[in-house]
Amino acid sequence: MKTFQEFGLEPKVLRAITEMGFEESTPIQEKTIPLALEGRDLIGQAQTGTGKTAAFGVPLVNKIDVNEDRIVALVMCPTRELAIQVAEEIGKLGRFKGIRSLPIYGGQDIVKQIRALKKKPQIIIGTPGRLLDHINRKTIKLDDVQTVVLDEADEMLDMGFMDDIQSILGLVPQNRHTMLFSATMPPNIQKLANQFLTNPEHVSVIPKQVSAPLIEQAYIEVHEKQKFEALSRLIDIEAPELAIVFGRTKRRVDELTEALQKRGYSAEGLHGDLSQNQRDNVMRKFRDGTIDVLVATDVAARGLDVSGVTHVVNFDLPQDPESYVHRIGRTGRAGKEGTAWTFVTPREIDHLHFIEKVTRHRIPKKPLPSLAEALEGKQKVTAERIIDVMDKEMQNEFKGMAIQLLEQYDSVNLLAAALKLLTGEKKEVEIELTPEDPIRAKKRRPDIRNSGRKVEGRYGSGWGDRRRDGGYGGRGGDRYPRRDGDNRGGYSRGRDGGRDGGGRDRDRDRDRAPRSNEETFV
Ligand SMILES: Nc1ncnc2c1ncn2[C@@H]1O[C@H](COP(=O)(O)OP(=O)(O)OP(=O)(O)O)[C@@H](O)[C@H]1O
Ligand SMILES: [Mg+2]
């Protein structure tokens, strides 16, 4: 892989990249950065967590003139949380150059955004709906835009943003540089590309398998009623640093979160019915590690980049293979390893095979962990905590009592009792979750995308032949500093002042669930 020095970037951009902990470029970056620096239009496809943001962010930031006081670049993303996250990454890349960038998304006070726009940002990162609001209010002008990026373009089209995107792109001068990133290349993306890109280079790092190779995948066959117990045991055994548990509906997420909390796990839920503030808070706590388990609907499936997510659990099997790929792609990012488990009820096995076929990856079966294994897992964690305290601190004030106890009692019995106390007994709370209907095999949802395309083979690329045992450049993946948990996790909801009125929230969270039952999902 190329180092970033080899691209001939400005020193200030290079410095920013170094500070971000990036040394070598990822495959998609290696291919797209030189082309983008030449000003070539391009279509990029690559696996989850392989650095697509910097693939367009680096050339974008590199070419912007810091003395510019007009909007010269526009990045469009499907969801608010992605707009915030991408803005954050671009902000970091442009830090030393002094580039001004601004996220613009629904759910945030529009007056506040208008005030921020007065500071003359050069790059706007926005969701299509809110961007159009500003364009109509004449608070955003696209006449001087020279570069446009469409991130997660297929998702934007799935969410019904085609018209909005076309209106927006129609307002940008034709003589511009356009980059489009998409997980899949359905016909409507081709159409969009034909319409708005000029002689684009198609850059895709085609992998043998669709999902990132650093993710160890397994499924566990469980009955609906065993799922919660299975989840608790898995958490006890593996003690994930950060885990995301995906549930199918909002009700499921609420019930599961409450159940986990009752059993003493540090978990919070995330779905589209929460207020912007609640979502912000949950994401902040998850990013800074205040909570260990994020229970979420597919709202968190795509694009979201939280470093340190070691485990993903599909508590409910996802409807679509692409949803599966994006969900598990929340772990195993940036050269780190991750684990993804999927619970499958006996009636859903066929659907699992369908997912395996489409993703071209066999998912091995794993037995339901036993109670004994779970207990052992918990004890190990307690033992590690004890050893950790012993290594770090002097326990002088406890030593007197320790000596006294050891004189009177058997040392093994003593320590066993202490372990028992510290491990804590599982709170015997009855947990009852409302069962979800099984996902029916190969039953395609109503063709909401109007594309008639096949799902198979729709994915792009990734790390090439990187293995589970290597990080970037052969080192372990841990060299990247943990993301600061401040304002990256911004979820928001509700388009105040949106032109759609209250009822039609186009910028709302992702909704990959069957539309027939839309209200319950996401
Ligand atoms: N060259 C690099 N070296 C090390 N880390 C990198 C590099 N490029 C990107 N990263 C980090 O990798 C993580 C994933 O990047 P990013 O979110 O851009 O992935 P993505 O390809 O857009 O994934 P998704 O398909 O899920 O949207 C981020 O934390 C990012 O900072
Ligand atoms: Mg991305």
From TrEMBL:
Composition skew (Basic and acidic residues), residue ranges: 447-457, 464-522
Domain DEAD-box RNA helicase Q: 2-30
InterPro entries assigned to the protein according to its UniProt record, in alphabetical order: DEAD/DEAH_box_helicase_dom, DEAD/DEAH_RhlB, DEAD_box_RNA_helicases, Helicase_ATP-bd, Helicase_C-like, P-loop_NTPase, RNA-helicase_DEAD-box_CS, RNA_helicase_DEAD_Q_motif
Residue stretches making up the Helicase C-terminal domain: 214-376
Disordered: annotated segments: 442-522
Any GO MF annotation of the entry: helicase activity
Keywords, in A-Z order: ATP-binding, Helicase, Hydrolase, Nucleotide-binding
Family classification: Belongs to the DEAD box helicase family.
Name of this chain's protein: DEAD/DEAH box helicase
Organism, as annotated: Gordoniibacillus kamchatkensis
Upper lineage: Bacteria, Bacillati, Bacillota, Bacilli, Bacillales
